[in-house]
Design a protein that fits this description.
- About 20% of the residues are buried.
- The chain is built from ten helices and five strands, in the order H-E-H-E-H-E-E-H-E-H-H-H-H-H-H.
- Strands 1-2-3-4-5 form a five-stranded mixed sheet, sandwiched between helices.
- The protein folds into two domains: about 120 residues, 3-Layer(aba) Sandwich (Rossmann fold), CATH 3.40.50; about 90 residues, ProC C-terminal domain-like (ProC C-terminal domain-like fold, Orthogonal Bundle), CATH 1.10.3730.
- The two termini are about 30 Å apart.
- Bound molecules: NADP nicotinamide-adenine-dinucleotide phosphate (NAP).
- The site of NADP nicotinamide-adenine-dinucleotide phosphate has 16 residues, from helix 2.
- NADP nicotinamide-adenine-dinucleotide phosphate (NAP) binds next to helix 2.
C-alpha cells in the first residue's frame, strides 16, 4: 500500500479486494477475463461490483466472478474535471440502498442517469461515452479551418474553445432546442445559413448519427464476444 492524500493505493488485489465493500472494475474490456480469474477467489456475494467496462455485460461479469450484485456503468472522459455524465443500470440482486450509494459515488464525477436496461448502456456508449471524441473531432476541424484562414495556433484555440463553451452555455440557459437556436442564428441568405446549408448538402447530420451507431454497435459486439 502507498499513501496518497486523497485515497490509499494498493499494488496487489489480495491486499484490497478482501476488505472492499464496493469494487470498481475499470480495466479495458479485453482484460476482463484475466481480471475475473484473479479476482474470483478473493471476493464474496456481499460485495458490490461496479463495472465501467464498455460492452461487458452484467451476465458475463456475474458468470466470470461467480457473484450476483453487479452495477454496469458508462462514464465519460470529462469525469476528469468533474463534468462527466455516467449512465448506469443494475442486476436485480442490487438493493435500493446500494444503488443510491453508488449513485452518490458516481455523482462525485459529474452527473449520472439510471437507465432501464443494458441496451441503453450500449446506446449511451454511442452518445456520451464516446461522445467527447466527436466534439474534439468537430473542434479540431474548426481549428484546422481557422489555421487555414491565417489565424495563429493560439487564436484558433481561443476562438474555437470559447465558441463551444458559449454555445453550450446558451443551450443550457435557453428554452429553445438546438434546432431552434440554429434557426434563430441563421438568417436567410446570411453567413451562418451558408455554413448550415453546406453541412446539410453534405449530409453531416446523418454521418454523425452513423458514427454514434458505429460506437453503439461496437459496444454490443464487445458484449457478444464476452470481452
Ligand atoms: N476513457 C474513457 O473515456 C472511457 C469512457 C467510458 C468507459 N470507459 C471504460 O473504462 C475502462 C477504463 O478505461 P481507461 O481509459 O481508464 O483505460 P486505461 O487507461 O487503459 O486503464 C486501465 C487500467 O487497468 C489496469 N489493469 C489492466 N489489467 C489489470 C488487471 N488484471 N488487474 C488490475 N489492473 C489492471 C491497467 O494497469 P496497467 O497500466 O498497469 O496495465 C490500467 O491502469 C475501460 O473498460 C473503458 O471501456 C472509458
Amino acid at each position: 500500500m502507498s499513501e496518497n492524500p486523497d485515497f490509499d493505493t494498493y499494488s496487489s488485489l489480495q491486499d484490497c479486494a478482501l476488505i472492499a465493500d464496493i469494487i470498481f472494475l475499470a480495466v479495458k474490456p479485453y482484460h476482463s477475463e484475466e481480471l475475473f480469474e484473479e479476482l474470483k477467489p478473493l471476493i464474496n456475494q456481499e460485495q458490490l461490483i461496479v463495472s465501467l467496462m464498455a460492452g461487458v455485460t452484467i451476465a458475463s461479469i456475474q458468470d466470470g466472478l461467480g457473484i450476483k450484485k453487479v452495477i454496469r456503468t458508462m462514464p465519460n472522459l470529462p469525469a476528469k474535471v468533474g463534468k462527466g455524465i455516467t449512465s448506469y443500470t443494475e442486476a436485480k440482486e442490487v438493493s435500493r440502498v446500494e444503488l443510491i450509494m453508488v449513485r452518490n459515488l458516481l455523482d462525485t464525477t459529474g452527473e449520472s442517469i439510471r437507465v432501464e436496461n443494458e441496451n441503453f448502456i450500449d446506446a449511451s456508449t454511442g452518445i456520451s461515452g464516446s461522445g467527447p471524441a466527436y466534439v474534439f473531432y468537430f473542434m479540431q476541424s474548426m481549428m484546422d479551418a481557422a489555421l487555414k484562414m491565417g489565424f495563429s495556433e493560439n487564436d484558433s484555440k481561443v476562438l474555437v474553445s470559447n465558441t463551444f463553451e458559449g454555445a453550450v452555455e446558451l443551450f443550457n440557459q435557453s428554452s429553445l432546442t438546438a434546432q431552434g437556436l440554429m434557426d434563430k442564428v441563421a438568417s436567410k441568405g446570411g453567413t451562418t445559413r451558408a455554413a448550415l446549408d453546406s453541412m446539410d448538402d453534405n449530409n453531416i447530420k446523418e454521418l454523425i448519427q452513423e458514427a454514434a451507431y458505429a460506437a453503439f454497435d461496437r459496444a454490443v459486439e464487445l458484449g457478444k464476444k464476452g470481452n
